[in-house]
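Reviewers asked in the last cycle whether our approach scales beyond single polypeptides. To address this, we selected a multi-component target totalling 604 residues and predicted its structure end to end. The input consisted of the following lines:
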Amino acid sequence: MFAVTILGNNSALPMHDRHPTSQVVAYYEHLFLVDCGEGTQLQMTRYKIRRNRIKHIFISHLHGDHYFGLPGLLTSYGLNGRTEDLWIFSPPLLKEIIELHIKAADIILPYTIHFVAINKEMILYEDKKIEVSCFAVSHRIPCWGFLFKEKVKSLKLNPDKLKEYAIPSSFYPHLKEGHDYITKTGELIKNELLTQVPEPALSYAYCADTAYNERIAEIISNTDLIYHETTYLDIQREKAVMRGHSTTKQAATIAQKANAGKLIIGHFSSRYELLDEFLTEAQSVFENTALALEGTTYIISK
Amino acid sequence: MFAVTILGNNSALPMHDRHPTSQVVAYYEHLFLVDCGEGTQLQMTRYKIRRNRIKHIFISHLHGDHYFGLPGLLTSYGLNGRTEDLWIFSPPLLKEIIELHIKAADIILPYTIHFVAINKEMILYEDKKIEVSCFAVSHRIPCWGFLFKEKVKSLKLNPDKLKEYAIPSSFYPHLKEGHDYITKTGELIKNELLTQVPEPALSYAYCADTAYNERIAEIISNTDLIYHETTYLDIQREKAVMRGHSTTKQAATIAQKANAGKLIIGHFSSRYELLDEFLTEAQSVFENTALALEGTTYIISK
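The resulting structure, written as structure tokens, was:
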């Protein structure tokens, strides 16, 4: 399962029962937390997020609506007796901030936090199946998007055929890499007879807070699911530029240029109570758009 | 109107739809904020607190459940265009913390914050009608309770009698101070004929997070309404001591020794979903006890 659950979809001023930004990306056994606005731990309880499975937290930038929930979450982990290490990827100053909070409370957390400062575009996390990298976006302060990308999967073995052709198991790894098999009698058995095409590699891009920037579309091209902020309706285009944010149509244009599979939009300005127009405007440019609704899980698929 | 509204009544781990500590003390045109746990600004919206009327914020201590909502509130004031000065009374390190958050966000708040460091027992705020002072309590880190005390009111003039005895208005201030009036013919008119007894001065004590400490009862003696924490039921007395908290019966004993008018209890540990026993136990020692419930306003009266 590869999916993202929205915990907060509002911009800086929490209102209309919408909360500041936070999302949880689930990839099989992993839970990755992306941004952590005030109230995130309460939202986690509300939506039954298994917070102890989170080992990696990604903070896009140091505007409060993207991390003011972090000190509370980290403290609560401590009170709950967490012992497992935690990695936090963020602009550099966050380490100092969190350490100052801990100093003020005169507590010692029972687990280790590894702060990884983001200074350039790079791979932040990688295992056999997935990698998470960051990319620069256009905001008023240094700000990063995050790209979750499944690695290209190896070919799947076809058990029936393996048996039929009596392939030795020592050769299985070679088959997965695409090699043909040559029997002892010199007969060549084509790889495609023995294997099946793997599931396609999936990807999710979190475009953080950003003004319209076509470079983003290049970096995240062909992503299956994109989250892009739409703080404003398109009529507020000027304000969006001024404040380093995007409008509905701008977000949808990025999705279109990136040839995205699907777009979800969020970070709605508090001035809007109803969100219908956000959806209509974005869909007029990129049809497969949905509102990023709190408590809703969006499956990442082809 | 002199009253306190509870915004959060839970201890550190928010749970059971209870929030970390925050209260708003209303005194006529004033709103004083006492502690500001994570989510306070959301609770203010929920309970329709007119947050722009707050000019003075009192933070008891620097455990996160008492101030992690402050950075968000201060930022939101900025986004809402607040220009009015704000005073924050707290242990000293808070200034550095807030300034670091502001530096990280690279913003300039459109209003001035006056940080007042609490280092000793003193009067923090004073006007003609009320004063707010702090008193040390017993917690794991420096922690302060707050006493809101109406000043003794001057005598009320009796308009009918003033007319009857033809008292010149220039003498009114003297009457309010208790002086008798002597007419031009040398006749003495006793003050009590011309004035009425004023309303009694009221008081509210916020006892913060504290272990059982009888000195508190002395400091806040004869207070009309006391808020005292009860993190634990009485069976957890040992844990309470260890963690610098109080049990139900300890809080009630303080109220009793202080000869309080009424007691409200809060800061409930997350281990308890139901609160009935908190009330029963406290009432067994001090009958006029109520649970400090979120969204509820407790009037301070004789």
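Chain A has a mean pLDDT of 96. We regard this as preliminary and will revisit it once experimental data from Aim 1 are available.
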